[in-house]
Amino acid sequence: MEVFNYLLGGFANALTPQYLLLAAIGVTIGTAVGVLPGIGPALTVALLLPLTYSFDPAGALIMFAGIYYGGMYGGSTTSILLNTPGESASVATTFEGFAMAKSGRAGPALATAAIGSFVAGTLSTMLLTFVAPLLARVALLFQPADYFALTVLAFVSVTALVGSSLIRGMISLFIGLFFGLIGIDVLSGQARLTFGVVELLDGIDVVVVAVGLFAVGEALYVASQLRHSKEEILDVRSSVWMNREEWRRSWPAWLRGALIGFPLGALPAGGAEIPTFLSYTLEKRLSKHKDEWGRGAIEGVAGPEAANNAAFSGVLVPLLTLGLPTSATAAILLAAFQIYNLQPGPLLFQKSPDLVWTLIASLYIGNVMLLILNLPLIRMWVKILTIPRPLLYSGILVFGTLGVYSMANSFVDVLLMYAIGVIGFFMRRFQLPVGPAILGLILLPLAEAQFRRALAISQGDLSVFVTRPLSLGLLLAALAALVLPYLPALAARLTGKRTSAGRLVFGKGDED
Amino acid sequence: MTPQTRALLALRLAALAVMGLGGIILAQTPQIGQSAGFTVVGPRVFPIIVGIGCLGWGGLFFLRLTAMPDHALIADVAAEEQRTDWPTTLLLLGLLIAYAAALWPLGYVIATTLFFPLSSRVLGSTRLRRDTLAGFLIGLVVYLVFTRLLGVRLPAGMLSGLW
Amino acid sequence: MRRFITYLLMLAMLISACGNQTASTSQTVQYPTEPINIMAPASPGGGWDSTARAMQAALSATTGQTVQVYNVSGAGGTIGLAQFVNEAKGKPHELMVGGLVMVGAIQTNKAPVNLSQVTPIALLTAEAEAIVVPADSKYQTMQELIADFKANPTAITWGGGSAGGTDHILVGLIAKAAGVAPNQVNYIAYSGGGEATAAILSGAVTAGVSGVSEFAEQVAAGTMRMLAVSSEERLEGVNAPTLKEAGVDVALMNWRAVFGAPNLTAEQRAAVIAAIEKMHGSKEWQEALAKNGWRDFFRTGDEFNTFLQNEITRIEGVLRDLGLVQ
Fold it and tell me: pTM of the full predicted structure?
């Protein structure tokens, strides 16, 4: 097969000592910068791009692949250890990841994230190698009505996040929807609910809300319970490695996460967040350990983390085959290509096959290097949790503030994050789950824009949502996902038995 | 007032706050401009849906608390209420706001050197000197890495001439 | 220990006080005397960001100073502008990139700040817009598209960038020239170039509007057909008529420029302009223009001021017609 020959040629190029060294440097710097708060993958790549200028195109792109993967991976570390997701695609990792860290299982959480990223990264690079052109054609079938149906499917995730009380879950969801409305409306260009604050015109970043609700809310909660809880040192279990049971539970989640993440990442308007929430929901539904959810279920880290990594690779599909930058990170990658007079797009594979295949080969290599680099680092990261609690939480506040500030150089964002922290504090006290709020914030802008676009294009004809096969199929899938899990419970309730639904409370101070 | 009635009151206030949020959204909606272009669903439709949703679910929560109170929830909230150390919580919040306010005039390094030990103190640490040193080091290292190596701007404040 | 820290802090303050003094006295004589900061009022990866980063490379080569770029994204640049107006006052080493989109955004967002509060330094680049259709569209020429647009306006959907941005403004101008009422213009705004291009390729919208370079690769690959460009004259290497040739009396260029801080003295302004002129002549800048496919549109001083005033008036008129400015 011709693809194999090309790929082998790519590996032959990429496996020279000089290029291997560049890949190693790229991965190391990418991880180091990606871990810093407020510096997500897009900014990491933008900041480090000038470093690559001094090399030949192949060398630069290889280093680049390393930075790209390293930057993507770095975000999960702070989500798990410090409860502060660095970008919206790692929010779903935070739910179970920080819960695991608090129960002394940070090591396995970081390990499943690292290995899951490797598995998903490699699997999705393989898919990129073999089905990219095909997938790109499928992705272009999606029109606004279909995207809207996809967001409806994603909204079903709320059932996995809602916790014990439907009313409180829905209140949380609507608080999130409210946050999602703030800012300039994409379609009409009109400002909504900004209350005259200029900084709100751009909307509220998911990271601001997530760090506020999770990190600041948690710190205030810890402060409020200080008098009555003893100084507990988080116990770091002697083994930082995953045990057999954790392996067994992780690998199916990795595979499912990768298979959800890659195609959705390849959709031009899919984004990396939807697959993480879908993966979280799927894993929770399939889990045989429902009681562990909310207190650190490893599948809840493995799935979303694999999904976001695969989604990032998926972004390369429209970029390389169609020349479409569908995320901020991809836009910078596009700029990087252009520096070397390469124009990604339908002609790239014909015009510069050597370079493309060297890049693809270096994606495989970068993944391996990332794993080799990060597994030993876990032992070091876990030590962070042995820091005394007052210092740990002060540190979380300092880093959360730093992250939110450096995202937009904005004090308004910082104050907003603190205000949202107060809301998070009260949500915790009144046992309102935090997850639905984040989901609502992420999904509302997508769902609303696509819904309105679909109707503008159909000139008001609502049937557009059911006459397109893709849209209809996704809506039926959403309906099935909504109803199916409740059938047994409903049947049980009708016969008078009550199922003991596990209560889901996020990051509650002293849950166990 | 028993802890239970206080908890119930707090929960009812929370329900009212959610309804109030819905009210604010609905009150703000007429101020959203309408685009003069061809429009099927305008920019006011979703705010109205969300506003009504907040009113509705907040109202349901209020009714639920009144008609058939969730005793487990009330007991939990009451227990938490009694354990709550309000002065510490408010102090930490005040410190945070002061930190944000101090970042620009004092600069990142000094503000962090001050905030870190004070916040650790509020959260129960007793070793002020160690914490101050730690805060200074965090502030300095972060500042140098971000501004020198990465070119990300952080406020230099009072130390602006120093580097 | 505590005493040591107090000592350190006092020392630091002392040094900082000295530092400030030297910095403020030497500004007007020479420029630049300290690191230059360029604000890109958009997220990384966009046109303003790449302009700022190209300036960074060229300026650090011509001045020998450190040049930093930072992003303040959002609302067509008005958030960045507001911050720039508040924080950069009188500081010649603070620069900001901006352009046509910002002119429109200030008006649609009723921003509390505007471009009269900053110091115009130089126009840098200008890019023509293009009207495209997917390859399998029935429209072969701009005339056919305009004919259908006149006959049944709302059935023609125009996909492009953010509402009130350059693409939307162009569609507004086309509608006006074609005699179509603003409330019949079915413009579908997308938040990014990639998203809009995908929407055009998927056939979701009838026609697409964006910068010429945005579509160049798709046109070359035969997945899109370019019906017209928005420049006054035909573009070299682009096989499409101008809108005027196609019978639509409209021309629009998406320009990008660099602005200085508010309240600069005349000497400071002249010094900054001189530095940017030097940058414009540099090998690095010319290479960046070529690599990015930007058209040189260099104008400084009063010429830029006049141009800016004309654009502000013209854009406000279009936005009013589109109902984006009440």
Answer: 0.83
Neighbours of C166 (CB within 10 A): 28
Cβ of A197 under 8 Å from any chain B Cβ? no
Asked if the C128-229 domain carries CATH number 3.40.190.10, the reply is yes
Give the contacts of A18 (CB within 8 A, at least 6 positions apart). A59
Is residue A508 in a domain?
no
> pLDDT per residue over B29-68, tens digit each?
998 887 778 888 889 999 999 999 999 999 999 998 888 8
Collect all residues of chain B within an 8 Å Cβ-Cβ radius of residue C18: 161
DSSP C136: T
Task: Return the residue of B nearest to C17 by Cα.
Answer: B161
- Assigned token pair, A13: 């190029």
Q: CA–CA separation, A91 vs A86, rounded Å? A: 8
For domain C35-126+254-321, give the CATH superfamily: Bordetella uptake gene, domain 1 (3.40.190.150)
ipTM: 0.93
Tell me if A500 is assigned to some domain: no
Angle between the N-to-C axes of helices C166-178 and C301-321, in degrees from 0 to 180, rounded to the nearest 10: 60
Tens-place pLDDT, residues A465-505: 999 998 999 899 888 888 877 777 777 777 765 544 444 43
B123, B147, B148: which to substitute to probe chain A, counting the most A Cβ within 10 Å?
A: B123
Domain ranges of chain C: 35-126+254-321, 128-229
Q: Report how many Cβ contacts below 8 Å link chain A to chain B.
A: 195
Domain-embedded: residue A161: yes
Angstroms from A298 CA to nearest CA on chain B = 28
Report the domain count for chain A: 1
User: Token match 């010319």: residue?
Assistant: C286
Residues C158 and C188: beta-carbon distance below 8 Å: yes
Residues whose CB is less than 8 angstroms from the CB of residue A271 and which lie 6 or more positions away in sequence, other chains included: A264, A265, A311, A327, A446
Q: Does B34 touch chain C (CB under 8 A)?
A: yes
Among B130, B104, B103, B132, CA closest to B118: B132
Q: Is residue A505 part of a domain?
A: no
Evaluate whether C44 touches A42 at the Cβ level (below 8 Å).
Answer: yes
Q: How far is C187 from chain B (nearest CA, A)?
A: 7
The residue in chain A having the minimum alpha-carbon distance to the alpha carbon of residue B80 is: A429
| Virtual torsion, Cα A15, A20, A22, A26, nearest 10 deg | 110
**Which chains sit next to C, with 3 or more Cβ pairs under 8 A?**
A, B
